Predict the structure.
Amino acid sequence: MMQAELLSIGDELLIGQVVNTNAVFLSKALNSIGIEVVQISCISDQKEAIIEALDESKKRAQIILLTGGLGPTKDDITKHTLCVYFNDILVENQEIKTHIEHIFSSYVTTPINQENRKQALLPSKARILKNEHGTASGMWFEKDNQVIIALPGVPFEMKALVNNHVLPALKEKYTLPYIKHITIQTYGLGESAIAERLIHWENELPRGLKFAYLPNFGKVRLRLSGKDFNSIELTERMEAEIDKLIPIIKDIYVGRDEDSIEQIVHRKFIQKKATLSLAESCTGGQIATLLTSIPGASAYFKGGVVAYHTQSKIDLLSVPKRLIDQHSVVSQPVAEAMAKNVQKHYHTDYAIATTGNAGPTKGDADAEIGTVWIAVASKSKVISEKFVFGNHRERVIHKAVQKALELVLQHLK
């Protein structure tokens, strides 16, 4: 099994100024052709740090991918450091020089300068990977049975180089196995409770298959992984295990692969030809934002009301003031009234309502911080449930959104 290590270069990553999305893309890309990523590291823009990381990588991986530090400014030292590491020199590459001049003359309003032209100076021992979308070339080195590939840090430039040059070259150089992942989405049960259900199934997994639990707010993803040089046999073997798994978790199973809960809601409502409306308070319109992020949501989602203030629940959703006075704005009767009234307003098959106290202060509510009531109305009934999501505001809101969509899925008939 070929193993790879990713070295992401840049102080902006280490101080949290930039999120390392390049590593996510590279991991998926390498995995798709049968290469396992064993380590991801972020290192500073310093020669010593880069060289030390390259030396250490020999212990773990046959393939090293570096991203970042290939620009025209003085802080971009990756290219010069690689020359030190490989005992190499920079030489002008005429093809790349012409390419850089073409980019400036065709697409850049500022005139080309000497620093830009220096990007055509490239290590003589490297195989140059032409960057069609930018001025920083990729570089492929080989030393001591190890492949070291340097790529620009600009995401769309890096991705094009990987797809057009790096992956084809790696597949040509190595005989690689097929790696497959099947991911199952579950909602409504915690990781440890699911694991208890699956003890027997997991113990009976065939050799060569791996199983993992991936918990997140309100959901647990279950991932089955395998690798084999025969892709057909591997797929059949894994699908047979998934067929055994689904009946054990049928009450919490909502979908496969990388579908988000909003994608699952989207698909289910369209399949059922059902319609939905929303009355959001503590979630502040975030449920509507998720649903409408998917093209075609208007086929089932008719609209919503963000009744954030207590008075707006009375004015816009016709929640009786006496109900609020008697039970508090964060209560079962208010949540159910919000759901029923927004359903009537939009004439939908289903409606979701949320009312809660996300904090950091109690505001108009008597309920403790983290308390959320969620109601789902259908044409025949209204169901509601109380949740306590802790005292972290963002976490409370996020979990309320996820749980609301989970509840409507459970009651979609």
Q: What stands out?
A: The domain at 178-256 is CATH 3.30.70.2860 (Alpha-Beta Plaits). Residues 155-173 form the longest helix (19 residues). The longest strand covers residues 178-187.
